Task: inverse folding
């Protein structure tokens, strides 16, 4: 069963959402210095998710890697810092990802691209191609699961041959598959009239 | 006199010391052309030349009256290309957004684009998956999405390069039925001989050269016979 992704459920325009995200991230980093402040920030972010109508499963899928990473960072930080400070640092990391995730979960990628193209418009006179930058970002987001699939395919092909791929052959295989994929994507983009 | 859909004159592609397409001449007026041949026979390269994705080393190409090399942009606006590997073709995170992505450069208004995307979703039975993550679709669904993203631009000619190769029997059958229902001019490059049997004309390539050309039945029979002979 394939789940659906939350889209355009927010009541703010894309520009306002991006601005709100920027303000929230800055306030998070500047103001959260204690466990009570972290708790308050976590409550506010949770309320924002509820207001936007994001389902708990979607939120979990967005945050699970960040939580895992924050736990590792928190444990390492607790070796050299008081545990309260380590928890605050790890918590800020998770909340920062959660705030950015809220924007991506509630905004269609095409709307984000349009907003980005508009925002980069003034840079066109300095040689920046807004459409190309936006396209690159879209491709980056799309390529993550594809490259993850390459990684799984390499591990499986190693296991099928009874060998465990070391980091170097694994990395080489991943680079080769990624370059081949990039060539095919470039050709497909031209065929779709996007990169003429 | 009507302009042929495709005209090739002595088209040759050489890569290094290897001749991939060898002096192919062809005039296509039929609505559906099938291209068959063994692996490495030059089928996909020929499709890419027709689609304006690569330039021939020598020879002349006209597609819908345009030169796909000189008038690349205009030609590609009228030609759709569906690749064997839909993963390379799918760019956006969801089904609806990927179809809409094909219309980013279109002069249509936002509303017209949305309507066109909705029509494509219905036409290819993808409405229920409209907001699903594209990378989690099955192979058959991905191939349908790739076809929908190609056809939403309303091309006059659609090139399908091995559209059923990566699909299981059920999905290949469904894809074949979808392709058969298309009203656009079609070039189908395939090993799936049942699929090309539905074409009005089939050509065969061997080592880059055009070696057979005619109605599907006789061309496919001769191909099967030659393949069987080569195995024995």
Result:
């Amino acid at each position: 069963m394939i789940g659906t992704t939350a889209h355009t459920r927010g009541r703010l325009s894309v520009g306002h959402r991006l601005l709100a995200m920027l303000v929230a991230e800055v306030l998070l980093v500047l103001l959260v210095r204690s466990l009570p402040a972290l708790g308050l920030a976590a409550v506010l972010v949770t309320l924002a998710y509820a207001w936007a109508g994001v389902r708990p499963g979607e939120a979990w899928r967005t945050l699970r890697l960040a939580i895992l990473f924050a736990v590792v960072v928190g444990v390492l930080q607790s070796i050299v810092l008081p545990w309260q400070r380590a928890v605050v640092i790890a918590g800020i990391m998770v909340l920062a990802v959660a705030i950015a995730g809220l924007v991506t979960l509630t905004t269609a990628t095409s709307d984000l691209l349009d907003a980005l193209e508009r925002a980069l418009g003034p840079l066109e006179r300095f040689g920046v191609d807004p459409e190309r930058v936006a396209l690159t970002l879209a491709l980056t987001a799309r390529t993550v699961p594809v490259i993850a699939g390459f990684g799984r395919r390499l591990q499986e092909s190693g296991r099928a041959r009874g060998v465990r791929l070391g980091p170097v052959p694994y990395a080489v295989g991943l680079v080769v598959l990624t370059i081949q994929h990039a060539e095919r994507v470039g050709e497909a983009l031209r065929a779709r009239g996007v990169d003429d | 006199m009507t302009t042929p859909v495709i005209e090739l004159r002595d088209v040759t592609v050489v890569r290094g010391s290897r001749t991939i397409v060898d002096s192919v001449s062809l005039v296509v007026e039929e609505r559906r052309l099938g291209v068959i041949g063994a692996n490495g026979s030059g089928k996909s390269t020929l499709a890419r030349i027709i689609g304006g994705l690569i330039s021939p080393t020598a020879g002349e190409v006209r597609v819908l009256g345009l030169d796909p090399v000189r008038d690349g942009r205009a030609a590609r606006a009228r030609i759709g290309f569906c690749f064997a590997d839909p993963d390379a073709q799918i760019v956006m995170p969801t089904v609806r957004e990927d179809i809409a992505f094909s219309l980013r450069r279109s002069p249509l208004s936002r509303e017209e684009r949305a309507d066109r995307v909705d029509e494509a979703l219905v036409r290819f039975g993808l409405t229920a998956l409209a907001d699903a993550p594209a990378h989690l679709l099955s192979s058959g669904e991905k191939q349908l999405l790739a076809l929908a993203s190609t056809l939403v631009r309303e091309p006059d000619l659609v090139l399908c390069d091995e559209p059923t190769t990566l699909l299981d029997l059920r999905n290949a059958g469904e894809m074949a039925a979808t392709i058969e229902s298309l009203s656009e001019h079609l070039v189908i490059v395939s090993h799936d001989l049942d699929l090309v049997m539905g074409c009005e004309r089939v050509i065969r390539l061997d080592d880059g050269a055009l070696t057979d050309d005619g109605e599907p039945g006789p061309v496919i029979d001769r191909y099967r016979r030659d393949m069987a002979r080569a195995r024995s």
